[in-house]
Amino acid sequence: MSDESQQIFDAALGLPEAERALLASRLLESLEPELEELTEDELAAELDRRRAEIDQGIVTPIPWSQVRFEPLRIKWSFVLWIFTLSFCDYLRSYLESA
Predict the structure, then answer these.
(1) How many whole angstroms separate alpha carbon 21 and alpha carbon 73?
(2) Are 60 and 21 in the same domain?
């Protein structure tokens, strides 16, 4: 880590917890890859596939409320998986209500 990065990190540690969490979230968002656009049918199929994985016990979702302050402590790919599951649940609810 460069001296400048270390100084920024040290300054960030002095922020209140809520501001550190927001800063961490925004930094993680800046690293997210561009996602391809899915058609509504493709999105519904993906949501069905992921819901089936949960229903079959292949994966166990973790509530966002339990991990929202943990993303810097765990592997990035796992953070993306958790986010995807939460987002898929949101999209499923949205599509079902439409």
Answers:
(1) 12
(2) no
